[in-house]
Amino acid sequence: MGFTEDPYHLPPDKFPLYTWELNETSTRWDYLRASPDESTRRIHWTIWSILLFFVSGIIFLVFFSVILSPIRRNSFNLYLVYLMVPDLVFSFGCMIMCILNATKGDYWSIPMCYAQSVIFIFGVAGNAWMNAVIAYKLYEMLSFSQDFRRFKPPTRKQVTQQALAVYAYALFVASWGVYDTDWWPHKSMIMNGNACVPVEYDTASTVFFWVVFTPAAIGLPMIYVCYVLFTVWRRGLMPPAGRRRTISIYFFRLAVVFALLWFPALFLLYMIGHVVPKWGGWSGGTWSHMQGAVSAIVSIMKPDIHQAVKDLRLNISRDVQEQAEQDTSDQLNRLPAITDAESTKSAQHESAFEPNATEEALGKKTGDEEGPVSLFGRTTTTSCIGNSTNDENVHQEQQVKDVDDDNRSCHSEQLVWDSEWE
């Protein structure tokens, strides 16, 4: 089903064109919205789903390693946790949406389109502004150290408040794309048939996108991070060794990773996408989806983060091993009862083939009376008495009769017993 045939998609004025409908009169905005065929879209969404599955897994691993470790009490490690939240939301949310789209072969619905737009911008803006906040704190720490002033790290409460403020601002900027009013020159649409993001569609929207939206979402914070990096280098604020140097290099490296992955991705999405409409925009999206995993891997380079990940992995392995040992122990604890029951049955079965032992055992179950030995050397009368008192003895007597071909009937043996007593 095509985009224009599905009433649940965006209104007609927002329908993306198909790539085969483009011609010499098509504008740059048409190319940004042009969609490939359904089979190509399925391929795009399927690859993204698989990629984002592994990306989300890596982010979750590092995230919970820090959360479940005492190192989370360190304010800068808490910054890392809050820095990973936008990556988690972006990667996991997009994975779910790509799976749904790939299953349907088309975009799922208008609400999901808007949801993806919000998640996309929240992930970008939230990460960018958290990097700016961290860069500010690092610059403050290094400046104090250079001036021989005591630096007081932010408390966990302050870090949390800063992160929540960043998230609120990122959500505010992300909501711009869902304002469906005629006068608002900024709307989220299905771009290249793959993702619902803010897209240029006329001159006013292009101006707003590059002059207002892009600086507010990612431009200003990344410019500030670059300024901090340059200032630290120019003033020689980086200490030659020590904990401050380790922390600073660590977070600046994360900021560089973010810039190296997102700026080329946005360039491919909005600058090259109209040149190669079928794969250009998709390549930009693929490049951006890897940012969360690369940042998580880089974060493991910090010694205490690496140890936390290692501890979590060991704890999981130990828990699995202990659970397996417990299951084995439970099975072994149940074995003796089963073995005793089976041993009793086996002994009874074997005694059936040993007349003397069987009849001796049967004789004990008849009561306190003891009968004489029969003329044939067997107390077969015990079995007859047992026949009237216990069903189990009847079964054992039948086993004796089957084995011994010379066994007489119960009535005959009773006569023999009576004659002996006489």
Task: Tell me the layout of helices and strands.
Blueprint: H1 28-33, H2 38-67, H3 75-104, H4 110-146, H5 156-174, E1 187-191, E2 195-199, H6 203-235, H7 243-272, H8 280-289, H9 291-299, H10 303-351, H11 355-364, H12 380-389, H13 391-403, H14 410-421
Explain the overall architecture.
There is one protein chain. This protein is mainly α and about 425 residues long. The chain has two domains: about 5-300, Rhodopsin 7-helix transmembrane proteins (Rhopdopsin 7-helix transmembrane proteins), CATH 1.20.1070; about 350-420, no CATH class. The protein has helices at about 30-35, 40-65, 75-105, 110-145, 155-175, 205-235, 245-270, 280-290, 290-300, 305-350, 355-365, 380-390, 390-405, 410-420; strands spanning about 185-190, 195-200. It has a two-stranded antiparallel ribbon with strand order 1-2. Helix 2 (about 40-65) packs parallel to helix 9 (about 290-300) and helix 4 (about 110-145) runs antiparallel to helix 5. It is flat. It starts with about 25 loop residues before the first helix and ends with a helix. It comes from Seminavis robusta. InterPro entries: GPCR_Rhodpsn_7TM (IPR017452). Keywords: Membrane, Transmembrane, Transmembrane helix.
- Please report the first level of CATH classification, the CATH class of the largest domain: Mainly Alpha
Topology as H/E string? HHHHHEEHHHHHHHHH
Mean pLDDT score, rounded? 76
- What's the alpha carbon Rg, rounded to whole Å? 40 Å
CATH architecture name of the largest domain: Up-down Bundle
The count of DSSP E runs of length 2 or more, i.e. the number of strands, is 2
Biased composition (Polar residues): 377-391
Domain G-protein coupled receptors family 1 profile: 58-271
Region (Disordered): 343-422
Subcellular location: Membrane
